[in-house]
Amino acid sequence: NSAKNKSGTMTGVSLNREFTLYVTHVEADGPMLRIWGQIDKEKALHIENLIESLDAGFKRGLGAIQADSVLVPHTTCCAYHENGYYRARICRPNNGTGTILVYFMDYGHTETVSYEDVRILNDTMEGIELQTIGALAADFILADVLSVRDFWDYRLLDEIKNTLRYEEMPASICYVFKNTRRALRLRYQGKDFSERLIAEGKARFASSDHFA
Length: 212
Description:
alpha+beta; CATH 2.40.50.90; 2 domains; elongated; Tudor; Tudor domain-containing protein; SNase_OB-fold_sf
C-alpha cells in the first residue's frame, strides 16, 4: 500500500520497503517526533531548476508584492529564506507588520517572511508549472520513541534537527497508526536512529501499542 502525505498526494513508498529520505525538517508532535522529508529526488531537482530559471527575474523584482496586491491564502508563491527562493504557500498576512506567514511546502515548516521576500508566481511557463506540482514534503512519526518527559526539550529538538536535516538516509515505514500516521525507521550513519536516541538517554522506548 502506498502512503499519502498531508496534502493527499501519493508518496510512492510501501510498508517495510526501504527508500531514501532527504530530511528537511524535524518538529515535536506532542511526545512524538515528526520527521519531514522529500522522497522524489528527480522532482525536487526539477523544482530547483525551475526556480533557478526565475531567480534573476526575482532579484529584479519580478512577482514582487504591490501596494494593491490581494494576498489569497493557499496561493503558491516563492519566498526567500536563508539562502535562496523556495516554493511556499501563503498562510496569512500579519497585518500591520509588513510580514507574511508562509508554509514551505517542499520542506514542511512555516516561517514569517517580509513582504519584500515574497514573489507571486506569474503566468510564465515556469511559474505555472511551479503552481501545479504537488507539495514534496511528506511527514512521518519516528518509530519506537517518545520524549523522556511529556514534551521535547527545545535544545534537544534543535540538536536532532541539526543532525538529520538536509541529509539523505535509508528509511522505511514499519507500520501505520490512526489510519494515516506513518511510523518511520531511519538509519543514520548505518545505525537505527531511534535506538541511538534511546541509548543516549535522549528518548524513551515506545512500542507500536503506544501509538495506536
